[in-house]
Specification:
Blueprint lengths: L1 E7 L2 H10 L7 E7 L1 H10 L4 E5 L7 H11 L4 E6 L4 H7 L5 E4 L4 H14 L6 H9 L7 H11 L6 H9 L2 H11 L13 H8 L1 H9 L16 H21 L4 H13 L2 H9 L1 H13 L4 H9 L3 H11 L4 H8 L14 H15 L13 H6 L6 H13 L1
Parallel strand pairs: 1-2, 1-3, 3-4, 4-5
Helix pairs in contact: 4-11, 6-17, 7-8, 8-10, 9-10, 12-13, 12-19, 12-21, 13-18, 13-19, 14-15, 14-17, 15-16, 17-18, 18-19, 19-21
């Protein structure tokens, strides 16, 4: 039975949570403690799967508590509850929490958030990689893009579209800002799928503080110097652009087009997690893939028991990004595992990834991904390959 820990300094709030979640007592082992000190003491002797903490507590607040939990128990999924809204609250939320919920929290919303987080525990069947991924609270940002963003924000009249465009070219910035804006804290009826929408929704003051004060977009460090982040960033942006073009070619709606771009941009985020979390080992994986001329994801599976697609999907699901995006990231090498027997972001990213590799000479040392022709034929899409390739060729040449 999964073990949950709820933390608040007010007994009446804990009692309310206990009453709300009573129907789940046969499925979850739920524990309620007053304050951070009791929470840390409890976790020393109990294997907790998820911690749900109030934000504003005397002494050690929720953000500080979860930071300590991340250090001591990195495998635990961390959820914050906050009863404050506005600019300052947003800045306080950015930190060690994986997901953010508003307080008071609707019982169904809380149960769904917890159930989704618990389902993730079984998605990545590798405790070591699970701990590595759960520990991550930001991703490296390319210095040139960070500098461009800082320069734009420093103008007397920054342009929101320009800010969104800069963020959309960076894997780390895009993933982090969409984690924040799509959190249940904001209670949006529909998820936001583009950085520009996120920038408009959060507002200029919040974005400026996130970048300049909180520094949520961490600058790229050379500790994984053998990993070509610039090359990955270029490939990812082209893949996203091609995936959205394929969706547009299929006359899909704007929501699906945006999700295809987002999934394409983030499809290799798991490589960043592995490269910066396990730099020496991942360098060996890359070297073996080159020397033995094997697909990178197959060598990852042999060495880690999971692929960068698995790791990336786990992180994005943990951060609450839209399900179609998570599925596309998880299945971009194996689209036939999709439960959707039609054109979807998973298909768009799979095809776009293959085309992007084919049109980029920087990826020739490792065998490029191969189209799953059998799956595309079963979906009745094989006849569209020529026109799709023409569309993507135009993008690659621009």
């Amino acid at each position: 039975m999964k073990m949950l820990l709820f933390v608040d300094d007010e007994p009446r709030v804990l009692f309310g949570l206990q009453r709300q979640l009573r129907p789940m007592h046969q499925e979850w082992n739920m524990n309620f403690v007053e304050g951070a000190a009791q929470a840390l003491q409890f976790m020393e002797t109990h294997a907790v799967d998820i911690i749900v903490s109030d934000m504003m507590m005397p002494g050690m607040d929720g953000s500080q508590l979860l930071a300590e939990v991340a250090r001591r128990h990195p495998q635990v999924v961390r959820i914050i509850l906050s009863g404050h809204s506005g600019h300052e609250a947003v800045l306080r939320l950015v930190g060690p929490a994986h997901q953010y919920l508003s307080k008071p929290c609707d019982a169904d919303e809380l149960r769904k958030a917890i159930a989704r987080a618990l389902a993730l525990r079984d998605l990545l069947d590798n405790d070591r990689l699970k701990k590595l991924t759960t520990r991550i609270h930001d991703l490296p940002t390319l210095p040139v893009l960070h500098d461009r963003l800082t320069a734009e924000l420093g103008k007397d009249a920054p342009d929101l579209d320009s800010i969104g465009e800069i963020i959309s070219r960076d894997i780390g910035m895009t993933a982090k800002i969409l984690q924040l804006v799509n959190s249940a804290f904001f209670g949006l009826a529909q998820p936001i799928n583009t950085p520009t929408e996120a920038v408009v929704y959060l507002g200029l003051n919040t974005i400026r503080s996130l970048v300049l004060s909180v520094e949520v977009f961490s600058q790229y460090e050379k500790k994984a110097s053998s990993f070509p982040l610039e090359v990955l960033a270029q490939h990812s942006w082209i893949t996203g652009t091609m995936a959205s073009a394929l969706a547009r070619h299929e006359s899909l709606g704007s929501k699906m087009i945006d999700q295809c771009f987002l999934a394409g941009l983030l499809h290799d985020v798991g490589q960043m997690v592995l490269a910066f979390g396990l730099p020496a080992e991942y360098a060996q994986v890359n070297a073996r893939a080159k020397n033995e001329h094997l697909p990178l994801w197959q060598v990852e599976q042999q060495c880690f028991g999971a692929t960068h697609a698995d790791v990336g999907a786990y992180l994005l699901a943990l951060w609450g990004l839209p399900n179609p995006v998570v599925e596309a990231v998880a299945l971009h090498h194996q689209p036939d595992r999709s439960a959707t027997p039609e054109f979807s972001p998973a298909v768009a990213v799979h095809v776009a990834d293959v085309f992007a590799h084919a049109f980029m000479t920087a990826h020739t040392e490792v065998p490029p991904p191969v189209l799953d022709q059998g799956y595309l034929t079963r979906l009745g899409l094989d006849g569209k390959m020529e026109s799709w390739q023409e569309d993507c060729q135009v993008i690659a040449e621009t």
